[in-house]
Amino acid sequence: METEIKVCPVKPFWGMKNSVIFLLAFLLPLTVLSGQKIATIEVEINHLSVDFDHPVSVNLDDITNISDTLLSLCEVGSNYRKPVAFQVEAGDQRRLYWMVSSSSEGNSRLRYELIIAEPEHYTIVKATEGEGALTLNHEDKNLLRYWFSTVYPPPGVDSSYKRSGFIHPLWSPNGQVLTRIQPPDHYHHYGIWNPWTRVLFEGDTVDFWNIDSRQGTVRFANFVSVTEGPVFACFEVLHEHVVYRKDGNEKVALNELQKIMVYKPGHQGDHFIVDFCFRFSCAGESPFRILEYRYSGLGWRTTSEWNKDNSMVITSEGKTRKDADGSIARWCIVQGEADNDHAGVVMMSSPSNYNHPEPLRVWPENQYERGDMFVNFCPVKTTDWLLRPRKNYSLRYRFLVFNGRMRNRQAEQAWNDFSVMPRITITKCHPEEE
Known about the structure:
Blueprint: E1 2-7, H1 19-25, H2 30-33, E2 37-44, E3 54-59, E4 71-76, E5 81-84, E6 86-89, E7 95-100, E8 109-116, E9 125-130, E10 133-138, E11 141-147, E12 166-170, E13 192-193, E14 199-201, E15 204-206, E16 216-227, E17 232-244, E18 250-263, E19 271-282, E20 288-290, E21 299-301, E22 311-315, E23 328-329, E24 331-338, E25 341-349, E26 358-362, E27 374-377, E28 385-387, E29 393-403, H3 408-419, E30 423-428
Parallel strand pairs: 1-30
Antiparallel strand pairs: 2-8, 2-30, 3-7, 4-5, 4-8, 6-7, 9-10, 10-11, 11-12, 13-21, 14-15, 14-20, 16-17, 17-18, 18-19, 19-29, 20-28, 21-27, 22-24, 23-26, 24-25, 25-29, 26-27
């Protein structure tokens, strides 16, 4: 994201004469300063985006040190002014997030004003813990559920298929379930999950995907943070990639920090965004070489309702389910019939990812005769990936979850929203002495 910061001096409206008075002014009640403009933020869209809301953000500390509890954000047009929901993510530096509304993009340059005023009240994307899972929802509609507890397979099935640290269900905006776990054909499939299949670690080849091999697994270790707010809910979790030694001992080979952000559904309620950021670091002094294999990494086992007759795949390169497997893609639409509705996901890979555009693993149309659906971004499908000690690595993905029917043009637009950051110009308004 390219951000330019300017300063536009203005005369103080209360006629102060020196910096001491200026400092004291901030100790006055909010009502005295209410409406004062802190900055103007202009967002230049790289393309005309008219179908989907999408997030943008700026470094708030570059603009002001005023508490975000005293700030409001407004979108300003030639003949309108409207409050905008925003959220500040705390950290080493505060980051201000808001959604660029698809209803606002009649032109390529949007203007916002950050002012001192009591913030408006907005509905919250909530994160609710219960029964071993964290559920993210908005206005009583569930969006996504993350399982931090260990989930065991059905009675009578080998307990080695147990797993924690996965997403199920992922719901569509209208409430249809889009994921599946523990299908009898692949008990190790867990909704949306992210293991590696062949890893060379300390002289052994370890399979973290096919957990019934008892070579390794990926498990939830701890929550780092859970956040909810008027723009997104977010959770950060630590996953451990655990090697099962032949002597019965365990060793953590890789640490994975997952950050999952779920944004408030768009103003029409027919879509929402899930952002995934996976950060990897070796747990000790041994490298972690992910070996080339046909499936590995971010996988999605879709609803059992989908088959070759009522669902479809199309990629950024124009491939369909007939020829998508093994192809490379920036994005991939997976959609199908859902109850009496239509729903799906645009899976998007970040340009910063290893081996981007990424190879795909897509099950063929004759999978188990009926054409069950499984889709996987697999950066190591064509090459190894060596993760070295004391270095950090990351993968980023975005899921655009929708109801209705997705067209290629819309998916390309959504990927541009994700991958091509807008140019942002910030003009700060600083009082000057007369």
